[in-house]
Amino acid sequence: MKIIVLEEIVKNFSKGKIYLEKEINRVLKRIYEDYAIIRRALIKYGFIERTNDCNSY
User: Fold this and answer.
1) Lowest CB count within 10 Å: 17, 26, 52, 55, which one?
2) 20: three-class secondary structure by DSSP
3) What is the pTM (predicted TM-score) of this model?
4) What pLDDT digit, counting tens, does each position of 5-23 carry?
């Protein structure tokens, strides 16, 4: 179930585009107030990747 929800959420982002953390947060805030938990799940399940410096995705 969680994977299905994350698959829908990731549709809000353009494939191949690099996003700043602020941009990711802005999109996720519209979906759920605890946007950080969604962002972490997207990373954990491989839907998005984060750079080593944690500034872009």
Assistant:
1) 52
2) strand
3) 0.88
4) 999 999 999 999 999 999 9
Alpha helices, H only, 1-57: 2-10, 21-31, 35-44
In sequence order, what are the residues at sequence separation of 6 or more whose Cβ sits closer than 8 angstroms to the Cβ of residue 42? 6, 9, 10, 48
Q: Determine the residue type at 31.
A: I
How many other C-beta atoms lie within 10 A of the C-beta of residue 9?
19
| Residue 28 near residue 38, CB atoms below 8 Å | yes
pLDDT in tens, 16-54: 999 999 999 999 999 999 999 999 999 999 999 999 888
CB atoms within 10 A of CB 17: 8
CA distance 29 to 51: 21
